[in-house]
Design a protein that fits this description.
26% strand, six-stranded mixed beta sheet, alpha/beta, single chain, 8 strands
Length: 170
């Protein structure tokens, strides 16, 4: 699924047992480029990510990635200083990841990013971690629930791609 075609992006509810899974919404061109570059970098490092991942607290992580060892990383994409200043929900993500990063483009004033958060500089073709994130290990029960939720969301999204005519009851 691409992030560039708004017609490919549809919010849909899942069966009540799963809650609601929101497929990616249209992003600004800048945010879409950063997201694409970050996902490419994650993939090259062995992590697999989902965009607009719904968390148990009602928030949606821009990118949630899993490593082979189960480590959970959340990346908050910021397309510019205005985006950063007007959207301060990021502390709500910290209870759902082992590592947390902001991803911005090369023109972003990085002094805005809190020093205790990881920092990624990205463009549409790739990304670089310029400041590592501190490790804050998730509790085992939360990790298990989150990992199961990742699998359910990913399978639901794949089902919609593979069988676009199937309507999941709300």
């Amino acid at each position: 699924m691409t992030l560039s075609a708004a017609s490919d992006i549809v919010p849909v509810a899942d069966p009540p047992s799963m809650g609601t899974v929101i497929l990616p919404r249209p992003q600004s061109d800048a945010a879409a480029a950063i997201t694409r570059g970050v996902r490419r970098m994650l993939f090259e490092r062995g992590l697999r990510g989902l965009v607009e991942f719904p968390l148990a607290n009602g928030r949606r992580a821009d990118i949630l990635a899993l490593a082979d060892d189960g480590e959970v990383t959340i990346i908050e994409v910021k397309s510019g200083p205005v985006d950063y200043r007007t959207d301060q929900k990021w502390p709500d993500y910290l209870d759902f990841c082992d590592r947390f990063f902001f991803a911005v483009d090369a023109h972003f004033p990085v002094d805005l990013i809190p020093p205790d958060c990881g920092l990624i500089i990205a463009d549409a073709f790739g990304a670089e971690i310029v400041r590592s994130s501190p490790l804050a290990k998730l509790a085992g029960a939360r990790r298990k629930a989150l990992t199961l939720r990742v699998a359910q969301v990913a399978m639901t999204r794949l089902h919609r791609v593979e069988d676009p005519g199937f309507r999941i009851a709300e």
